């Protein structure tokens, strides 16, 4: 009976060892499946976050570029506009003084003639092209320039057909 008991104990012990080995193998397999599932889900989340961060960075960069370009355009327009107004105001102020001088010395008829000369002659172009060579005279440290001033408007010639 003792032998039967020892045989039974040995069989039970082997059965427990086999069950323990199967349980450990099943536990290891289940752990591998769990870790693989967790890793796969973590990888998907990281990919999703990476795409979101990439798109957010692109959108932020584009928005920043639009803001910078808009500010540059706006400031450039404002500065150019202000400079143009300043230059125009100086020209208008100087023209006003010249007109007052012509009006005081020549009267309304002289002012009308002066306006006609200004309309019919591009002064800057005339000074650049005609104030050279024989048209220039020097006397007493001063320089004089002989200019051709047109007294009638420039009319384009008709096409010959």
Automatic annotation (TrEMBL):
<feature type="transmembrane region" description="Helical">
    <location>
        <begin position="53"/>
        <end position="78"/>
    </location>
</feature>
<protein>
    <submittedName>
        <fullName>Uncharacterized protein</fullName>
    </submittedName>
</protein>
<keyword id="KW-0614">Plasmid</keyword>
<keyword id="KW-1133">Transmembrane helix</keyword>
<keyword id="KW-0812">Transmembrane</keyword>
<keyword id="KW-0472">Membrane</keyword>
